[in-house]
Design brief:
The structure holds 2 protein chains of 2 kinds. Chain A is 39% helix and 12% strand. By secondary structure, chain A is α/β, with parallel strands linked by helices. In chain A, the strands form 2 sheets. Chain A has an 8-stranded parallel beta barrel, surrounded by 7 helices. In chain A, helix 7 links the parallel strand 7 (195-199) and strand 8 (215-218). In chain A, helix 2 (36-55) packs parallel to helix 14 (392-406), helix 3 (77-87) packs parallel to helix 4 and helix 7 packs across helix 8 (228-240). The longest helix of chain A is centred in the N-terminal third of the chain and has 20 residues, at 36-55. The two termini of chain A are 41 Å apart. Helix content of chain B is 35%, strand content 19%. Chain B has helices at 41-47, 72-85, 99-110, 141-148, 152-159, 169-185, 217-226, 243-246, 248-258; strands at residues 5-11, 14-21, 26-30, 51-55, 92-97, 115-121, 204-209, 231-236. Chain B is of the alpha/beta class. The radius of gyration of chain B is 16 Å and the shape is globular. The longest helix of chain B is centred in the last third of the chain and has 17 residues, at 169-185. The chains are: A alpha/beta, B alpha/beta. Chain A binds chain B through residues 138-139, 142, 144-147, 150, 174-175, 285-287, 290-292, 294, 296, 299-300, 303-304, 307, 337-338, and chain B through 66-67, 70, 137-142, 167-168, 171-172, 175-176, 178-183, 186-187.
């Protein structure tokens, strides 16, 4: 199993009354809350935490893209990876989950920047291609929701061809036309870096991942309990398509807080967890559902599910997980559209009880993770070990304890499977060493 | 209300419903935000004195194919085709509401000889920093009715699923209507129409509900100023953005007096 240390890079000093006095942490978050001098420290703390995680032996460090967002300070995750490519442990893979490729016209820029990172890092890049959340893509970046998925598909084709085509070519797409495509540099990994696709629960995405042989990543903030239906659906679809059940086909995100004892964990992680689930998930319902963002096939599936639930006398709790990648599940999409993200657990006991955050001693955490890894059947575990307003000291403690005490307890998991979706970097003997004045292989 | 006759026309691989009702001089109507899932009293009032022809805009209720159009030129050509196939470009009076109003203005600007006069109800297309449109696509569902109509119940009634409608396709169709308008006008409702308004030479009537929360009063003033031909504005009392829903009699009477 792979342990990937994921950072959202939250703004850690939102006021205590944020939920009461602010409608949204996303899109139109109050700019007066942002202090650049404090952000200077936050960015550097967060980068320190990622470098520390790499030194602790995590398999990968992961970043992602958000815009106009108080819990995600990475409008350009590639900037972060560029820094980490130089400074972080050279044995650690670099995962960007990812670039919202529909936003970049031409997508040449994404192909180029990812190729740069792959070259700088010696072939350690994992390239994530999310459609992106409605808030990021349609509202903060103004992309037309009716064209978002069409542009996404075209951008994917563009980037992949730019990485793999050896000759200069013309790209004549619906939305992107470029007479000369010839990116320079080219990715070091051949034919290209492994591609991971963060997504919700749409069957179209599962099929596409299977067809393209990409990793499907379910990035929920609501833990394993809420993810069962989605992950089961994914694997059932892989069965239908005749794909093997190699767990490395799937990635999953989980918040974790580990301490010497469970009571210590409760003491340490209650505040940052509540900060995240109370303040950071304060998102206005106005931005939940731009028209056209959810495909008609998914809408139909949601309506059918609603009707059957109503017919069976069940609660109005239909989960349409494909609607909102990154912030889905737990609360039904219909509720989200009406009321925003305000029905999910926000107090620590409920957060833990619902499985949003796994806490405990190393043994307890390892036991729970082993169970969910097998239950949901995934091999690429993405861990949020810093969340909310957790400070660097606590984040590093969590990271260190996980690496030293939890990771070894899970070293046997999925050892029988090969991970075909992992970077293939240059051997260390062929790598450049940053700031090494005696680099014999350096360009003259 | 008697039901209109229904035919269908093909447009760029999609298909659009065309309603017809009444006798007399032909007038055409392109729907406002959310489209027309049902025949409305306003159209009946027009049909008392005229033959009313109502083709559906691709993606609006009664029509599909909006995903075939990638840019504004695609849309304008498609709307011209729709009007032509509906026999609405024979020096005809045309009416449009909101997004439909903007598209009618485009046709009048580009094909002036095919249009007799136009009546636009809170037309979209020229939003700017000085007179911004409200964002109709970033609203909580329960707030949308109040944004569209002075009497929100009229919007709710229009969007309520009839007993004989497919319970799965009905909500999908209503969502598609919002998507289609977004496909044309996202994100600000500004399609650059202001640069083409100067090409409109036919008599133009512009209506706005006095409680329209989407289109500001000064927006309408600017819209009217840019038109080269004779243009008059009229405020409809106790009406919101969809004035034809709020005050069907007043809007129909004003338009019929104008044309």
């Amino acid at each position: 199993m792979k342990h990937c240390w994921f950072h959202l890079m939250p703004y850690t000093e939102l006021p205590e009354d944020f939920r009461d006095n602010h409608e949204s942490i996303w899109v139109d978050i109050d700019s007066k809350l942002f202090d650049p001098e404090r952000a200077h420290h936050m960015y550097n703390d967060h980068l320190d935490e990622m470098e520390f995680a790499a030194d602790m032996g995590f398999d990968a460090i992961c970043v992602n893209e958000h815009h106009s967002n108080g819990y995600g300070l990475m409008p350009s995750p590639n900037l972060m990876l560029a820094s980490l490519a130089r400074r972080a442990n050279p044995k650690t893979a670099l995962c960007v989950l990812g670039n919202s490729i529909a936003l970049y016209n031409p997508p040449t820029r994404v192909a180029e920047e990812m190729a740069m990172i792959d070259c700088i890092s010696g072939g350690r890049l994992i390239a994530g291609f999310p459609v992106g959340s409605p808030m990021d893509t349609c509202y903060a970046y103004g992309q037309n929701p009716s064209q978002l998925r069409e542009r996404y598909a075209e951008a994917h084709d563009f980037i992949k061809k730019a990485w793999t085509e050896t000759d200069t070519f013309s790209f004549n797409g619906r939305f992107n036309q470029q007479r000369y495509v010839n990116i320079w540099p080219r990715p070091l990994q051949k034919p290209h870096p492994p591609i991971w696709v963060p997504g919700g629960g749409s069957i179209e995405t599962w099929r596409w991942c299977a067809e393209m042989d990409y990793v499907y990543c379910y990035l929920s903030y609501y833990g394993y309990q809420a993810a069962k239906a989605t992950m089961n659906g994914f694997w059932e679809e892989m069965d239908r398509l005749g794909k093997d059940r190699n767990p490395y086909r799937a990635g999953f995100l989980q918040f974790v807080g580990v301490a010497e004892t469970e009571s210590m964990a409760r003491e340490l992680y209650a505040e940052p967890a509540e900060y995240f689930y109370d303040r950071c998930l304060r998102v206005s319902a106005r931005y939940a559902n731009p028209p056209g963002y959810v495909t008609e096939a998914t809408q139909r599936a949601g309506v059918k599910s609603q009707i059957s639930t109503a017919a069976s006398g069940g609660p109005d709790d239909v989960s349409n997980t494909s609607a909102l990648p990154g912030i889905q599940k737990a609360q039904s999409i219909n509720e989200v559209r009406k009321n925003g993200f305000n029905k999910n657990a926000r107090e620590f006991d409920s957060i833990v009880e619902n499985g949003y955050v796994i806490i405990g001693s190393p043994d307890q955490v390892a036991e729970q993770l082993r169970e969910i890894v097998h239950d949901l059947h995934f091999g690429q575990l993405m861990l949020l070990l810093q969340y909310g307003n957790m400070n660097k000291k606590t984040a590093n403690y969590n990271t260190k304890l996980y690496a030293e005490k939890v990771m070894p307890l899970l070293s046997d998991v999925w050892s029988e499977w090969e991970n075909h979706w992992w970077p293939k970097p240059l051997s260390m003997s062929k790598r450049a060493l940053p700031n090494n004045i005696n680099n014999s292989m350096a360009a003259e | 209300m008697d039901t209109p006759s229904v035919t269908r026309i093909s447009i760029s691989g999609g298909s659009s419903r065309v309603w017809r009702k009444g006798k007399g001089e032909v007038i055409g109507f392109l729907a406002g935000f959310g489209g027309l899932p049902k025949w409305i009293p306003f159209l009946d009032l027009l049909a008392d004195k005229n033959e009313v022809i109502v083709p559906a805009i691709p993606g609006f209720p009664g029509a599909v194919g909006h995903n075939n159009f990638d840019n504004h030129l695609d849309w304008i050509v498609a709307v011209h085709d729709i009007l032509k196939k509906s026999n609405l470009l024979n020096n005809t009076s045309l009416i449009g509401s909101g997004p439909g109003g903007s598209l009618i203005a485009e046709v009048a600007a580009l094909w002036p000889n095919e249009v007799k006069n136009i009546s636009l109800i809170s037309p979209w297309g020229i939003s700017s920093d000085e007179f911004p449109m409200a964002d109709p696509w970033a609203q909580r569902p329960h707030e949308l009715a109040g944004l569209m109509c002075h009497n929100p119940k009229l919007w709710d009634d229009l969007k309520t699923q009839p007993n004989d409608a497919d319970p799965i396709e009905w909500p999908v169709e209503q969502a598609r209507a919002l998507e289609a308008s977004a496909r044309i006008f996202w994100p600000l409702g500004n399609t650059g129409l202001i640069k083409r308004l100067g090409h409109i030479t036919c008599p133009t009537l512009i209506l706005r509900g006095d409680s329209d929360r989407i289109i500001p009063k000064n927006y309408i003033k600017k819209f009217c100023q840019e038109i080269q031909g004779e243009a008059v504005t009229k405020t409809i009392k106790n009406a919101g953005h969809l004035a034809e829903l709020d005050q069907p009699y007043e809007v129909a009477k004003t338009i019929q007096s104008f044309i």
